[in-house]
Design brief:
91 residues; mainly alpha
Amino acid sequence: MKTETYNPLDMLNSQEEVNAYLNLAFLDDDPKVFLLALGYVAKKHGMSKLAQESGLNRESLYKTFSAQGNPRWETLSKVLHCLNIKLQTYA
């Protein structure tokens, strides 16, 4: 039986849905939840394309979204900008 990698982004059909998905992940108490979710979005976009658009190294992007990733805000900001992600805080 052949299996495929699951990417929850396959179920999201618009930029608004992607933004909502990441905003919910951002609100989680565990920051790794947000990094994992952003990693899914980045992989769906294409790491090589994202590296080229952001000016970041492709290998460092993979490391950023790995289980051991601990990215700087500057890196996250560039990635969010390239992916057209708008984070919102809720009071």
